Amino acid sequence: MPLVYLGLGSNFGDRLAHLDRAVMRLGELGAVRRSSWYETVPVDMPSAPYFLNGVVRVDTSLDPLGLLEFCLVLEKHEGRTRGRALSPRPLDVDILLYGDEVIAEPGLRVPHPRMHERAFVLVPLAELVPDLVHPVVGQTVADLLSRVSTEGVERVEGQ
Description:
alpha+beta, 25% strand, 4 helices, 6-stranded antiparallel beta sheet
């Protein structure tokens, strides 16, 4: 079974409840380990509410497209409607890494195309697996994190 890393985020409604329910549902797929939650400034979304973000590692037997479908159902169950890009959302689930596979299919690109540029992904991912090597960029998560600003990414205490 490949180790899969998912980025989770919420900036609408009860953010923590949306994320906690998603983690619980992801447990249906296999063993789950999650990072801390981080409050983050929205990227490319002026005046949008702050996000809670984190990363979850899931052991799953689902193939990449099956996992994508599961993630889309999770988002929909939490009230996400697609079609309005860059709008607040109760739940956003991105497949960051699927083992060391590189996937380019309609609607699915893995590794996530911008994960290596985004502190709100790299900070929680480094908490889980700092030595993991990005299969395209060829650098560890810790190295990638050292190259981005972490301003606007704050760990939520008391979780």
